[in-house]
Automatic annotation (TrEMBL):
Superkingdom, natural source: Bacteria
Protein name (database record): Arginase
Biological process annotations from GO: putrescine biosynthetic process from arginine, via agmatine
A molecular function GO annotation: agmatinase activity
Keywords for this protein: Hydrolase, Metal-binding
Claim: Hydrolase is one of the keywords in the record: yes
Organism: Pseudoalteromonas ruthenica
Length: 369
């Protein structure tokens, strides 16, 4: 193995932790973590050595999709709880979608009160480095967005033919995931587009003075795209401004939920495929906020919205895109299993996890092609 790979492996062992351990707890939900560890490793104790040993297989793994959990909801702002998404979605994938394979690199080590290192003073960073790495002068980052970007940047430098499938967490996490991806693809000479499923535009410049959050991440990745029109959004329906405002202000392309329902998936798909062909796009990244789906199917989330897409519509659009363009990066965001905003008589977490797992399984299989 090269020194470059060994440096990356050392960084992963410090900045990440075993799958499911991204939510820092002592006793709470211990049994849920143990259940996932048993599914992954066949045991519930001494997981850390098994996970570290498994990392050695990453260079030779047959899977192009590499799973990374980021258990942070600090960039959210309505109902919290998406930090449990990575643990619950992994378990649901194993139980309900066993055909969906990926190399699981683990979870980002999350201090739940932090978002990005740029918001911290030197004293806080030093204290957090001591807590995470037992070294108050460590070179490693301490906030989930900063750690994610750093690890993903080095990942693509080592494995340009593989892709990260990120599991959140709130949607602010897609900022470092897509930023690292877009910069890597630019260096490879690839022209890419981001396919973004969401009930909301996420095109604020800031929210209450914070520029990186669940409602603004799209704005801040536009500079890394070949063109702002290479951010293509599906399922939008909850917005204080009309579609014309967002498209004229930012130059993005939007396909609101009511348009998809009124025109039909086929007409919208044909328009998007023609745009991607005309723009000479090589590869796609899919960022999927579970609230793109109607609240009937996805109510265990921070901001459930009615009048959205149904799961089959989402899969039809994704299938048509994947038939023509490689999907080389993706994420699934905003599944909050412990929230309950469902209609009476419906199980919000079970339904949301089931539909989220179906779409995640499709994305993993597409990435592995």
């Amino acid at each position: 193995m090269t020194a470059k790979w060994q440096d990356f492996q050392e960084k992963v062992e410090h900045c990440l932790c075993p799958p499911g351990n991204g939510v820092f707890t002592v006793n709470t939900a211990k049994e849920r973590k143990a259940a996932l560890h048993h599914k992954l490793y066949g045991q519930t104790e001494n997981i850390e050595p098994l996970w570290k040993s498994s990392l050695q297989d990453l260079p030779t793994s047959e899977h192009k999709a590499v799973m990374l959990g980021i258990s942070s909801d600090c960039g959210g702002g309505i109902l919290r709880g998406a930090n449990w998404g990575p643990l619950f979605l992994r378990s649901t994938l194993i139980e309900q979608q066993p055909q969906a394979k990926a190399f699981d690199i683990g979870d980002v080590r999350v201090i739940p009160h932090l978002l990005h290192d740029k918001y911290l003073n030197e004293g806080t960073i030093s204290n957090c480095q001591k807590a995470l790495y037992a070294n108050e002068q460590s070179d490693y980052h301490v906030s989930p967005l900063s750690i994610t970007e750093d690890v993903c940047t080095d990942f693509y430098a080592n494995f340009p033919e593989k892709g990260i499938f990120g599991i959140g967490g709130d949607h602010s996490i897609s900022y470092p995931l897509t930023k690292a991806y877009l910069k890597a693809k630019r260096e490879q000479g690839k022209k890419v587009a981001i396919i973004h499923f969401d009930a909301h535009t996420d095109l604020l410049v800031e929210r209450l003075g914070i520029d990186l959050c669940f409602g603004s991440w799209c704005t801040h990745i536009l500079e890394f795209l070949p063109s702002p029109a290479h951010l293509i959004q599906f399922g939008i329906r909850s917005s204080g401004k009309p579609k014309e405002h967002w498209e004229s202000t930012f130059g993005v392309k939007q396909h609101w939920a009511h348009e998809i329902n009124e025109r039909g998936c086929e007409a919208v798909i044909a328009e998007v495929l023609q745009q991607l062909r005309n723009d000479g796009v090589d590869e796609l990244y899919v960022s999927f906020d579970i609230d793109a789906l109607d609240a009937e199917f996805a109510s265990a989330t921070g901001t459930p919205e009615d009048d959205g897409l149904n799961p089959q519509q989402a899969l039809t659009i994704l299938g048509a895109l994947a038939d023509e363009f490689p999907i080389t990066g993706a994420d699934m965001m905003e599944i909050a299993p412990f929230t309950d905003s469902s209609l009476e008589g419906k199980s919000s977490s079970e339904t949301t996890l089931r539909e989220g797992a179906k779409i995640s399984a499709f994305l993993l299989q597409a990435m592995n092609k």
